[in-house]
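[User] At your convenience, examine this fold.
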Amino acid sequence: MRFFKISLIAAFILGMLCVCAYANDMGPFERDTFIIKELTGVILRTTTTTTTTEATTETTTIQQFDTSKLSNTKQSWYYMPVDNHTVPRGNESVALNKYSAYYTGNTSEKVIYLTFDEGYENGYTTKILDVLKAKGVRAAFFVTKPYIESQPQLIKRMVAEGHIVGNHSAKHLSSPSLTDSQLREELDSTAEAFKKVTGYDMPKYFRPPMGEYSERTLAATHNMGYKSIFWSFAHKDWLTDQQPGAEATYNTVMKRYHNGEIMLLHAVSSSNTEALGRIIDGLRAQGYSFKTLDEI
């Protein structure tokens, strides 16, 4: 910036010299008028250059896919669990990275991306938020439209405490069963409900209900500007009457953590809620930190 200012001064002085040299061949009145006009022009040109140079314009272009030419064969997301802390392989039927879809983050770093699915409220989210706040961890909560409408205070708290609130659709339907326009309506109506409650635009992260998708639907959500977020860790935690218990949940997490892990936990789980603080401490003891999806 200092060099830039010096350059402007030098340009101004040079301009003055040229003006004066040219003006020597003119009469007094004509010379004075010319100098005033040229000085004004130099100042204006200098101001314009500064504004143009210091202003920045950022344009983001999203590649659009013709979804009519893509397969709508339904895929169910899966990964192959491993207990040696290496990155598991996932369903390779569709190239996720082509359509802004992820099941891991940065696998070269000891980092965890903590995510929760929220189809309905089971009384545990307040405690989960309390633990995250106490531990200084920001997570992502994928919520449905009915959840937003029935739990506006929890949604507002998530936003206020720095968590990402992602889109889990309006009716929690299998994406491949919907047309492109129906899928857009599912996401748009959920985003509208979020903005009505919070006043903010909903972050462009989508978790396909039940982990069901197709190449077409990944392309369709990509065309809408969304990143589709799958996972590289999950466990059987969603059956509220068949909870594994906090100890089993903690042990499963600690057997299968790995670099760049996107961890899926269901917020309806008592086991997850009870084990969460210990999970965070245990992973940090292994040298892991927690990042948000914005950092993928």
Notes: The beta strands are 75-76, 101-102, 111-118, 140-143, 164-167, 205-206, 212-213, 227-229, 261-266, 289-291. Confidence is low (pLDDT under 50) at residues 1-57. The CA atoms of residues 75 and 213 lie 5 Å apart.
